[in-house]
Amino acid sequence: MIYFLQQALNALQLGSIYALIALGYTMVYGILTMINFAHGDFFMVGAFICFVVVTFLQLPFLPALILSMAGVTILGVIVERIAYKPLRQAPRVSAIITALGVGIFLENFTLALNPYPKHIPALIANLNWTFGGLTISSLQCTIVVLSVVLMIVLHLIVKYTKVGMAMRAISWDKNVVPLMGVPVNTVISITFAIGSGLGGAAGMMYGMAYPVIDPYMGIMVGWKAFISAVVGGIGNIRGAMVGGYILGATEIMVAAFFPSTYRDFVAFSLLIVLLIFRPYGIFGKPRIQKV
Amino acid sequence: MALLKVDHVTHYFGGLCAVSDFNLLLKPHELLGIIGPNGAGKTTVFNIITGVYRPTEGSIYFNDIEIKDKTPDRITAMGIARTFQNIRLFNELTVLDNIAIAQYAKAAYSPVEALLHIGRYRREEQRIMERSQELLALFKLDGLAFEQSKNLPYGLQRRLEIVRALAAEPRVLLLDEPAAGMNPKEVDELMTFIGWIRKEFNLTIILIEHQMRLVMGICERLVVLDFGATIADGAPHEVQGNERVLTAYLGEKLKV
Amino acid sequence: MRGGLWLSETGGILRTWLLTKAWLLPLLLILGFAFSFAIPYYGLLDPYVQLILMYIGINIILALSLNLVNGYMGEFSVGHAGFMSIGAYISSILTVKVFSASSAAWLFPVAVIAGGAGAALLGLLVAIPSFRTRGDYLAIVTLAFNMIVKSVLENIDAVGGARGFLGMSKLTTLPLVFCWTVLSVWLIRNFIYSNYGRGVLAIREDEIAGELMSVNTRQVKLLAFTISSFFAGVAGGLFAHVLQFINPRMFDIVKSTDMLIMVYLGGIGSIGGSILGATIYTFLLEILRPLGIWRMVIMPLTLVLLMIFRPRGIMGLREFAWFLPKTARTNRLAQLRKEGEEWRS
Lengths: 291, 256, 345
Description:
CATH architecture of chain C: Orthogonal Bundle
Largest sheet of chain C: 2 strands, antiparallel
CATH class of the largest domain in chain B: Alpha Beta
Helix content of chain B: 25-40%
CATH architecture of the largest domain in chain B: 3-Layer(aba) Sandwich
Radius of gyration of chain C: 21 Å
Strand order of the largest sheet of chain B: 6-7-8-3-9-10
Order of helices and strands of chain B: EEEHEEHEHHHHEHEHEEHH
Distance between the termini of chain B: 48 Å
Distance between the termini of chain C: 17 Å
Structural class of chain C: mainly alpha
Strand content of chain C: under 5%
Number of strands of chain B: 10
Oligomer: heterotrimer
Number of helices of chain C: 14
Strand order of the largest sheet of chain C: 1-2
CATH superfamily of the largest domain in chain B: P-loop containing nucleotide triphosphate hydrolases
CATH topology of the largest domain in chain B: Rossmann fold
Order of helices and strands of chain C: HHHHHHHEHHHEHHHH
Number of domains of chain B: 2
Strand content of chain B: 15-25%
Number of strands of chain C: 2
């Protein structure tokens, strides 16, 4: 039982990271109906920025977090302006392929600058609290609490600000909203900024929680976060959060009770089963085909 | 004997009743109009007949065969073809291919023959291509055979949609607002056109239309829908004076 | 202005000429086949260049296979490496463990076909979800399928698990790759220019309208996925016997991404495009090899630029006249002549 609870904590930690990245996928999809396949690599860049500022500038936790998020935010906005914006009228797949290209570029560019995997030094005092056999580390607390705080902030932005309202309006109907005087380009930039910023935060936390970071780490984590977004119903913010925790829990629990090599197999089989029964994810609504 | 029989069909979208207890008996060679205010369920009726939606209740017989559970492609192959309210051509494809696709069910060769281009492939393809060209010539579209259909002007796109439906060799043709966006002169031409294809192809036609000129001009019988329910069924002049129809279109009479 | 007209007119004349000289194609094919024999036999080219030629052939098959589903049918499969790995493993197991050493060489085509057939069976399985879901959700299904195949292979110790499988002799030769490539191009071309191929196009353009125009979309999807995965499996079999070593990680998302790039670089819905895309991509990667890791920085940048300036890839829905079957070629010819007359008048 203790073992199970311990694993549940790990699941919460991994799920938080997945959820933060999945939010970036889902927000961009909601607004542009485009899958930003470079998002996993934004996450990786976040981890590397954190590495750089911590190792070379010796910055503590909070400034490192702010710089990681800011750096990835700027990256996201620039990528959107340069690579995605010209393709808004092009066939949808062209944008997806461009995103794949941007991703590969980021991976290898980072690799060209940092040929070896890196390790982020400890940023917060490593404390452990034990409750009746259950050990909670300060790191786990930080990750989970910080993620939840970020998600709440995002929720408040989307729900109660003018920009958030514009975002919801655009995801509802892309064609009419510009006619209502909403500055669509600005809203899209802000969406990319927020999504990328969350990805940057996730990158930093991942780097703190796991021993090494390398330029290709964004591929697998990115795809999995994307899957989380789909499980929740892509385009749906609540769905991305829930999906992240579901996938995190599935992976950790499979690894905990079965040989860890079955982890991917079970996780992806579950995904397919879920999509058979709920083809549009947990919170997704099927778009009714007009004939 | 009825060619098409819609029997007590009811259809819900979630909690919304789009069509309630719809009945229709269509005699061969009839020209029937379905009219009604926007959102009355007219297109839904077409969608149910062609198999896009499976009705919540009721059944549909075509030539005394129940077609409610058949897929749209089977129903079309059996002889019910349609056009769409908002034109749905295969935009990137040529006019010729648009016509050829509608003959999918008519081509009798196997995938293996298709992969190797042997056996019946050559003869069947030749037949399909000849038939397509013939149709295009008949409707004066032959000069545009290799044009992408999205490049056609609106009027020709509408015409091509009808030709495409005819390429499927239907016995019943469903026209969904064929006169949408047309001026009075074009509507007059369309009326002649519909009359002509009806005779030429020996068709039974159901059409949905808002333009009263067209409906009153050529339909032999009218069905009026409102909120999914049939409120009138009869010859155009009978329907014209019907109290409930007037209410549906113009609202309640002021009670003084 | 005048020059442009002259150019386009010459282009038209050239195309018309090529169209009427259809016999040139078989001639070129025979020549190509002779060369593919002569090159290794007389050592006309460096073994390294021969290797690249083989990769080009294999990549053409892969790109075509993916183009059928993604380009012609308009679905978005991101897991084709999964089909490739099935072909690679089945054919390798056959040549190493089932066939005797002496018979493996001439039974190799059988092994490749068996690999393709195995992949095709799984293709059927993936086609079933495509009945109900489309677009992004189908993309996820293929992605998940890719990951599942990889994960399963990693867990089967009999084929080496994550360490991989080896012991294949170098059975893939240049003439063999040439023949398979030509055969794949021919078969996929034939399929596209058939009734079923028109069904595939109808699904891309407007699935519901297609269904309402009597296209049996389920049948068409099953066929397209089966054929596509068959050829991905064939390419996998050939690939395994060039490299003589395979492991599950070779066939993960990165490989699928490679295929996507080849298809979209060359242009969707075009056989000529896939051939060009696969050739250029393979060739460029090799040319830029001296740049080390920076080539993988330059390649994606080029791709992004290409997508911005030519979102439909190099060919994008157009086709080389030679790849058209006879009826379509006559049609094209008639069209070109008509355009020519319009110019002159």
